[in-house]
Write the structure tokens for this entry.
Amino acid sequence: MTGLQNAPAKEFCSHFKMFHEMMPFKVQEILLVSSPYDAFIMEEDGSLASRIINEYSGLNLSHPPRVTRTASARDALAVLKNKTIDLVITTPHLDEMDAFSFSLQIKATAPDLPVILLSHSPRGVFPLPENRDCSGIDKVFIWSGNSDLLLALVKNTEDHLNVSNDTINAKVRVLVLVEDSPVYYSSFLPLIYREIVKQTQAVLGVGLNEEHRLLRMRSRPKILLANTYEDALALCTRYQEYLLGVISDTRIPKNGRLTEDAGFLLLSKLKKEIPDLPMLLLSAESVNRARAARIPAIFLDKNAPDLLSELHDFFMDHLGFGDFVFRMPDGKEIARASDLRSLQALLPEIPEASLWHHARRNHFSNWIMGRSEVALASRFREVHARDFQDTESLRGYIIAGIKEMRKWQQKGVVAQFSKKSFDARIMDFVKIGHGSLGGKARGLAFLSALLQQDMSIYEKFPGIDIRIPQTLVISTDGFEAFIAHNNLRRLSGQTLPDDVIKHLFLKADLPDWLVEDLKAFLDQVDYPLSVRSSSLLEDAQFQPYAGLYETYMIPNNHRSLNRRLDHLVTAVKLVYASTFYEGPRAFSKATGNAPQEEAMAVIVQELAGRSYGDFFYPAISGVAQSHNFYPIPPMKPDEGITHIALGLGKTVVEGEKTVRFSPRYPSILPQFSVIDDILKNSQHRFYALKIKNYPEKLDFATNGNLERRRLEDALQEAPVLSLSSTYVPDEHRIRDTSTVQGVKVLTFAQVLKYGSFPLPEVLAEILELGRRGMGCPVEIEFSVTLGSKRSRQEAFHLLQIRPMVAGEGRFEVRINPEDICNAFCTSSQALGNGKNEEIADIVYVKPDAFKKEATTEMVDEIGLVNTSLVNDNRRYLLAGPGRWGSSDRWLGIPVQWHHISGAGAIIESRDANLKADPSQGSHFFQNITSQGVFYVTVNEGSDDYLEWSWLDHLPVVQEMSYIRHVRLEHPIVIKIDGRSSQCVMVKPA
């Protein structure tokens, strides 16, 4: 609807032309150079272009960017020769060359082409390699799973290139962000862009005329990023008359050096020149609040638990926000709409005079264009109000257009849950809410996409149902609403016991809308459910947060729908609560993430398996990795490793007894080398969900509502019969059948040796598919349902995929004979790559005091020492027998992450009395490796050794019943050669 009823068409076209001539540089062609997995997670629920248009209200893109994706640097360079590209986004590790060399080759031929390096973690980039020219990279951003950053970096590139033109021609305003830390500005920029949109909305209804309104809508404030004092001052001086505000860190580089008060000096200088300019001073040190008051400026503590809400308040209080204001022809306000949904809801009730008033003046098209809904705005613009004969046809056209556009927004890989349209029979992957899926759910969605793109796996295994279980995701906005409604964000700044946090969350109420949606979901679904975490940071490559949050299982078959709803709501609350537990807090501190930035999505997923009597469980659960950290000949690292167990996967991920094999060599079982080893190392207990005769109030506190059953209690159940062998004492041998008399032993021989189910072959295909898709080694969690007499259908369920940290050594480590001669510890099974010369503290379990039955007491002692060393900011070496982090206290010391969060290196010692398999495959192991903690296995009786007597003679700082803490005057030297897995720990000279 053109709306300029009295304006000539030529004049309208000139206004429209001016609208489009603003922002002469637009990112219309993006070259995204990354693995397919990185590309997928950046685009999550739609293409990068559509997310820029649809999610950034008020950014006014007239043409959506097109994204060209390549998986290798050489392919990308070929694209640049044949196509005009406006922006290059690259990830650090590329095929054929690294990102720095790649960027230099780009600059050699296109020096003005912006090149942005996008890394999952600072560890993927910093410290920058020595003797490496990094000048080809214009900006480095750190992406933690929030896809809004992708939108922000694209718009920020445009802003820097267009600001000169747009300030002169349209008087657009400028907001300057001064921050040198990529971690912080990668977090702040998306927030600032999202909030600046609200500020833009605030001026949409106050234009003096149509031209002013159009220009002010199109000319949203530009956001400029400066990394130093000098750069910031230059920007502020150049655009002084257009400044909207300045946000600055306190400690920023000045005169080439990081200066403690440079941000304070900058804001003080600007305040004298522009007294009314809104200013915000940021600092990680609360003492700078007094400095901010002297400017004066608003102060925000970077470590504040409510940082995000305070930043939001700054924008709301000082930079404004706006709605669509419905008015009568005389200017009287009658209603307001803050978004398209509320606009659609109000339109049926708006008086006739008001509707025509806005339609004739093109207000609907302008306001929608301000929210970057270009297609709908253009459609409305092409139709004149005079084309409609009556009010209801006009009203119906507008409502139908908005409804159609909102429906188009929701299309994507993951379907949007709706109580009216949900159909459990055909919808396999749906989400509640419009927030993020979180890391774990995003991985599942990516895996689903991979399976759809490559159908060959179904052709190779036609008799097996290979799929992801039916999945509902409660997106992160459910968590945010729950936290805000119950004022629970305050807990992120407190140190409370897990039990107290759990109690507070259980007392809190889920939002009514969420409860209603969950009830509608359960009304169609009556199979057992797994309720799992999917935080924003979970399953990221360098900080996976694996196993730190809770998972719960519920039978979901009670005759009362309200009782089933109560069980599900309780499980969701407990998953939310685990966000604030001690373990995730400690891990966040180690990774440099602020707990208040974490947001939790929840996966409500069909529990894979079958019912057997009163219980429900899969025949096989497991974890498979495409990289084997401990290969035993003839195995090779890149041939992968798998851990499997009977029943639900808690056995595997918590490091209990499992069967370990390589998919390439399924019949080679290192832990089953002799009969006695088989009897000792085989699984004797497994986890199952009770689905009959369970209590009305489920026991969520014990194993996530699971029961840990004894193998001998399930000897007549089909999975045990199918997967067990029999030990015949008279013959001292194990027969690969369960039909003879004797002790049943879980060996999985029918699968691994005789191929009753092609598990190794399926795993090899899936791991390769995931590795190609993610561009790096991967880890998957899976389960297998075997055929039965009633149903011959067999199933392979994919439960999770995450990238692994493997093979990322960035420099060569040389271990020479002198190092070995002066070492107190050597190992041929070490994980990591690099050199550490900073550890002078050693915490170890005293060998003469170690008792298997006392491992839980050792956990408490280690936790106390760890807390003391973390408070003193001292990294340490931790050494002890058995498997660290196992939930089975008889296999090692069952520490959790927060007990050892200060460790810089860990030794696990294996001897004849405590011969547990290495820890790989467990969640604990995944988190250790992701943090770059050196992990060393010492096999006593081999060429490996640990000189306990040398440790015993070092100066003691603290000694307890089982633990001794010693300290050297000078640090030890730890070297690990990641190519050979060799490690030496060298005594100080």
Remarks:
- The mean pLDDT is 81.
- The longest helix spans residues 148-170.
